[in-house]
Specification:
By secondary structure, the chain is an alpha/beta fold. The protein has two domains: 3-126 and 303-333, Quinone Oxidoreductase, Chain A, domain 1; 134-279, Rossmann fold. The chain has ten helices and 15 strands. The strands form three sheets. Strands 3, 4, 5, 6, 7, 14 and 15 form a seven-stranded mixed β-sheet that branches. Strands 10-9-8-11-12-13 form a six-stranded parallel β-sheet, sandwiched between helices. The protein is globular.
C-alpha cells in the first residue's frame, strides 16, 4: 500500500460532535528517518478525553492543531524501522492517531510500548490499556477502598467504569454502578458481579442510591460529573473519597457547567475529592499490568469491547461515547490483525 488514509482535525467543536470537525485526507505512507519506525495501525481507541484535546482551552496536554492528525491511542505492528529498539513485526501500543500508518521515534504523550508476541490486541487497548490503567490507579491509589466499604461508579458500563467497579469488588467492597440502560445494568450485575446497578435515565437517582447504599457511600468513582455528582455528595460517609476521573456529561456543553452546589458536604463529612491523570503513574504501569493480567487469568477481571470496522467510520463512532452506544472499550479497527 502506498496511501496513508487519515482523519485531520478541521475545526474546533461547539456542542455535540457532528463529524464536520474532521477532514478525510490521503498522504503517502511515511518512511522512517534516523531513530524512527513506522507502525501499521490495527486498532485506535475512542475515549472521552479526546473531546477535550480538540478544544483550544488550557489542559494537561496541548490541543490537537487544526490540520493535524486527530490524536488517539492505538495499537499496531512495526513494518519498517531505523530505531535500534524496534524491529519489523514488533507489536506496539502508543498514540498513533486516526490514520493507517504512523511514523514515530517512540516518544510522545503516551510513549510507544512493545507488547509481547501473541498479545490480545483488543485487551491491550482496554483492560490492559489506558482505560484499565486509569481504573487501577484511580481506585487503588486515589480511592483507597477498604473491604466492606461501599463504592459507587458512574459511567459504570464504559471502558474505565466497568474495570473500576470490578477492581473494587476484588478489594472486597460493595459496588453499585450507574449506567444508561436496563441492558447495561443487567450486564454489570450479571456478567461483572456488581452488587447493584441503577439506570440513571429512568430511576430517581437519589432514592435508588439510598436503597442500593443503605450504609452510605465511602468511595465515588466519577466519570460523568453534573447532577449525579451533586446527588452522590448528599449521601457520602465520614472520610469519603471522591475520585474525579472525568465529567462526560459536560464535555459537549456550550456553556460552562456549574460546579457542585452542595460541595460543603466535603467539609461536613471531612471528605476528600481528588482528580488525577493516569500519565502521572507511568513509572508504575508494569505493576498494574502484572496485577490485572493475573486477575484476568483467575477470572476475576473481565473485559468487553465494542468494535467499529473501518477508519472511515471513526467520526461517527466517536459520537457513540456521548450517546451511550458502547459497552466497555470502544475501538475502531483500522486494519487486519497480524497473522
Amino acid at each position: 500500500m502506498t496511501t496513508n488514509h487519515q482523519w485531520l482535525l478541521a475545526a474546533r467543536p461547539s456542542g455535540m460532535i457532528t463529524g464536520d470537525e474532521f477532514k478525510w485526507n490521503e498522504a503517502p505512507v511515511p518512511e522512517p528517518g534516523p531513530g524512527q519506525f513506522v507502525v501499521r495501525v490495527v486498532y485506535v481507541s475512542l475515549d472521552p478525553a479526546m473531546r477535550g484535546w480538540m478544544t483550544d482551552r488550557r489542559s494537561y496536554v496541548p490541543p490537537v492543531g487544526i490540520g493535524e492528525v486527530m490524536r488517539a491511542g492505538g495499537v499496531g505492528e512495526v513494518v519498517a524501522s531505523n530505531h535500534p529498539g524496534y524491529a519489523a513485526g514488533d507489536l506496539v501500543t502508543g498514540t498513533p492517531g486516526w490514520q493507517e500508518y504512523a511514523v514515530t521515534d517512540g516518544s510522545g504523550m503516551m510513549p510507544m510500548r512493545k507488547l509481547a508476541p501473541g498479545t490480545d490486541l483488543k485487551t491491550s487497548m482496554g483492560v490492559l490499556g489506558g482505560t484499565g490503567l486509569t481504573a487501577y490507579f484511580g481506585v487503588l491509589d486515589v480511592g483507597q477502598p477498604k473491604p466492606g466499604e461501599t463504592v459507587v461508579v458512574s459511567g459504570a458500563a464504559g471502558a474505565t467504569g466497568s474495570v473500576a467497579g470490578q477492581i473494587a469488588k476484588i478489594q472486597g467492597c460493595r459496588v453499585v454502578g450507574l449506567a444508561g440502560s436496563d441492558e447495561k445494568c443487567a450486564w454489570l450485575t450479571g456478567e461483572l458481579g456488581f452488587d447493584a446497578a441503577i439506570n440513571y435515565k429512568t430511576a430517581n437517582i437519589a432514592r435508588a442510591l439510598h436503597e442500593a447504599c443503605p450504609k452510605g457511600i465511602d468511595v465515588y468513582f466519577d466519570n460523568v460529573g453534573g447532577e449525579i455528582l451533586n446527588t452522590v455528595l448528599a449521601q457520602i460517609n465520614l472520610r469519603a473519597r471522591l475520585v474525579i476521573c472525568g465529567g462526560i456529561s459536560g464535555y459537549n456543553a456550550v456553556e460552562p457547567m456549574p460546579g457542585p452546589s452542595n460541595y460543603m458536604q466535603l467539609v461536613v463529612m471531612r471528605a476528600r475529592m481528588e482528580g488525577f491523570l493516569v500519565s502521572d503513574y507511568a513509572s508504575r504501569f508494569g505493576e498494574a499490568i502484572t496485577a490485572m493480567s493475573q486477575w484476568i487469568a483467575e477470572g476475576k477481571l473481565k473485559s468487553a469491547e465494542t468494535v467499529v470496522q473501518g477508519l472511515e467510520n471513526a467520526p461517527k463512532a466517536f459520537r457513540m461515547l456521548f450517546e451511550g452506544g458502547n459497552t466497555g472499550k470502544l475501538l475502531v479497527q483500522v486494519g487486519p490483525e497480524p497473522r
